[in-house]
Amino acid sequence: MHIVPVVRGGVDYNREFPEKSLVNAANFKGPRELAAFLKSLETDELEYSRYLEVKDRYRAFVVDNRWCPVCEYLHKLYQLPENRRHKVVDLRKELYDGHVLTPPPIV
């Protein structure tokens, strides 16, 4: 498919994905700046093809075992003697706090 993904969300896309594999809305000051970039990309065939080249090097797939690391972590945590009885683990703190980014507001 000849589509360049435009993303906005709680992931640091600049760190997680190769440059020019997608357009990260967080890199723009607002919707107008993003729209101007997308319009320029539409008319610049060479730049558009660069994005498609980079994007096409990768394939998306669904990993069905996304909870496996959580189970492994909890199992290891339970093995510690001090955690064997009545220990409550704050999953949000352990798994998400400081790891998930909130997207900035659209202005």
From TrEMBL:
Its EC number is 2.4.1.-. Transmembrane segments: none annotated. Gene3D superfamilies: Glycosyl transferase family 10, C-terminal domain. It comes from the Eukaryota. Pfam families: Glyco_transf_10. It is a single-pass type II membrane protein. It is found in: Golgi apparatus membrane; Golgi apparatus, Golgi stack membrane. InterPro entries: Glyco_tran_10_C (IPR055270), Glyco_trans_10 (IPR001503), GT10-like_C_sf (IPR038577). Residues 2-78 form the Fucosyltransferase C-terminal domain. Pathway: Protein modification; protein glycosylation. Keywords: Glycosyltransferase, Golgi apparatus, Membrane, Transferase, Transmembrane. This is Fucosyltransferase. It comes from Elysia marginata.
